[in-house]
Target: EAL domain-containing protein
Amino acid sequence: QKLAVGLQAALEKDELALHYQPIFRLDTGRIESLEALLRWQSPEFGHVSPLELIAVAEHHGLARALNEWVLYRACRQLRQWQLAGFDGLKVNVNISPTMFMRGQLAAAVAHTLRETGISAAALVLEITEDTSLWDTAGSLDTLHELRRIGVEIALDDFGTGYSSFSHLRQLPVNKLKIDKSFVADLSTDQRAFDLVKTIVTLAQSLEMAVTAEGIELPEQQQRLQQLGCQLGQGYLLAKPMPAEAVAGWLARDG
Ligand code: G
Ligand code: G
Ligand code: NA
Ligand code: MN
Model:
């Protein structure tokens, strides 16, 4: 309860921050996108993890305000990088699954894109695998509407949830992010290797691009490239960093 009051105040005082972690094309090494990750260093509560923040927001009716704040901030930041001359970048924004069931998400996204001057093709919404997504007609409508606008949808933490092949085939999703637990075991465990191989093949047959997250070792990156995984993210390549650090980093990266 105290945390919820604190979060409400933090939203109003603009005390929340987004950090950004680059996502790379594994073949060229070029940066493809920046994933926005929520950070709250509270004077009162210390560092609060984003998962806890989201949970508190969900319980206290603040989820919509929080998700819309993240969406707006990330798009506005991408516009600032574009104006500074960094072209061709996308931004990945995590959205809570419950937001897809409420019906206003597509309108809020369209509004934010107009307001910040970002094209739909530069926005990737990340959503975790959650069965409720495909149990609700409203969520499917929202996903279809977002794809119609031109926004990309990525299924995050793929492989840890419950999506069956038939669900996946019906979902208007065009990217899969392989969960970092599979990537972690990639170089040591044959079964993890086979599993990642299967996910990449599945994604190819569904015409979805694959991102591997949690790449920490060069061997993991090599194996992912061998398997035909197009995109990668992880501490080996770049860690999440404050927005102010990104421009300097982009200038060096070229
Ligand atoms: O960056 P970190 O490892 O602390 O993130 C922990 C989890 O919180 C991740 O699963 C991430 O997807 C989630 N998360 C981070 N930022 C956001 C956000 O802005 N919105 C939502 N809904 N989830 C987020
Ligand atoms: O659920 P989601 O994929 O959004 O979570 C991303 C989280 O993973 C972020 O909190 C980020 O800080 C973390 N992360 C990013 N790269 C790595 C990595 O290489 N290893 C580990 N263990 N975590 C990572
Ligand atoms: Na994510
Ligand atoms: Mn993930």
User: Anything to note?
Assistant: The first strand starts at residue 17 and ends at 25. The chain has one domain: 22-37+68-249. Strands lie at 17-25, 31-42, 46-48, 90-94, 123-128, 152-158, 175-178, 209-212, 231-232, 241-242.
